Amino acid sequence: MIGFLVWLVGLICCIWCVKDVWSKTSIDNVIKIVLTIALLVCSWVGLAVYYFVIKDRIK
What we know:
By secondary structure, the protein is mainly alpha-helical.
């Protein structure tokens, strides 16, 4: 049960990050696709990298 909740929270956070990536108009669609795939494949590590490193660099 706990594992399912951790997975569910990770999925919700991934969807939120992917939505944030696609709302940025200043980056190219190819980069958006690469970031989307990286976020979905890397799950929690991808979320941490996006939130702490990438999010502030793209406007």
